[in-house]
Amino acid sequence: MKIDRIETFLIAPRWLFCRVETDEGLVGWGEPVVEGRAEPVRSAVEVLSEYLLGEDPLRIEQHWQVLTKGGFYRGGPVLSSAVAGLDQALWDIAGQAYGAPVHALLGGPVRDRVRIYSWVGGDEPAELADAAAAQVAAGMTAIKMNASGRLGAIPTSSEVAAVVERLTAVRAVLGDDRDVALDFHGRASVAAARRILPELAPLRPLFVEEPVVPEQNHRLADIVTASAVPIATGERLFGRHEFLAPLQAGVAVLQPDLSHAGGISEVRRIGALAETYGAVLAPHCPLGPISLAASLQVAFATPNFLIQEQSIGIHYNQGSELLDYLVDPEPFRFVDGHLRRPEAPGLGITVDEKAVRDADRTGHAWRNPVWRHDDGSFAEW
Ligand SMILES: [Mg+2]
């Protein structure tokens, strides 16, 4: 079997899909994308395709080695995401070739269902409480929310109080039987995190995510030791070597993204690395259906897995939805806040190829919002 053809599709709201076809007619799908940088990743996939065309798709590890290292210069979001999407597509093909779901090829399932969480949005505590109540009504057992909006380098008393009030309002809705995680999106400084986290600890968030931007990960130990709140990070890290320092700093939860951190092959290894530190995986996935399907395959095969992010119905996917590109949405139907184990070969979903080709004709030009502080200076989004 040989790889015959590789195509990419720019899909609203902000995704890029790749389709890998073999001379025997098998087709694998992947989702190689960096949010806001889909076009450079598309170019990277095209360059990497020069190597893959004519190759045996089942030699996944061999291809992963060459795709990540063969260009001499390596790593970074664009290249690692391009490799990630192609890796997903090769695993999808392998599963179909062997007649097995990917989790079976990874050693078989270690759990029967996967716990997921939904995002809740809102600026005011009352809005957040309403959104949390809606997720509880929908059967979710865990949610995640932003900790704050723009945050000063040294947060004021009112900024600290606002973060605590937001979490307090949501905890009151959830009680102790459900969980809430808090995402700082890298908006805090080390000093800010050390000031805020001890005040959040009594509210027992499941974890606090990306308190600081990855450039400051060498300070994570100072944040970990500031409180008993478990610290999570990883959506902007791109290979196992980048996760080592956070683990050594005492981070409890790793959040590699299946579409950024080298795909199924590398996230599997990141999970094994985390296991040696007693840390758990909660893969980042605010992306589309292929990325979520790949995440689930890893979740079902990884012992030290905690919970899965997903973006079905999320507020910022305007004009298009994760389920729009599937022939059958059933694999992503929640049952009691969990997803069931896929048994179909490969990634376990059937992509609606016509919908994808139609959407690609329109494309998208999604970009991150650029935030500013009151004085006009740049603020982390
Ligand atoms: Mg995040």
From TrEMBL:
The catalytic activity of this protein is classed by the Enzyme Commission as 4.2.1.6
Q: Lyase: present as a keyword of the record?
A: yes
UniProt KW keywords: Lyase
Q: The organism sits in which domain of life?
A: Bacteria
What's a Pfam family in this record? Answer: MR_MLE_C
Q: Which GO terms describe its molecular function?
A: galactonate dehydratase activity
Q: What class of enzyme is it?
A: lyase
Query: In this protein, which residues make up the domain named Mandelate racemase/muconate lactonizing enzyme C-terminal?
Result: 125-230
UniProt-listed PANTHER family: D-GALACTONATE DEHYDRATASE, D-GALACTONATE DEHYDRATASE-RELATED
Q: What is this protein called?
A: Galactonate dehydratase
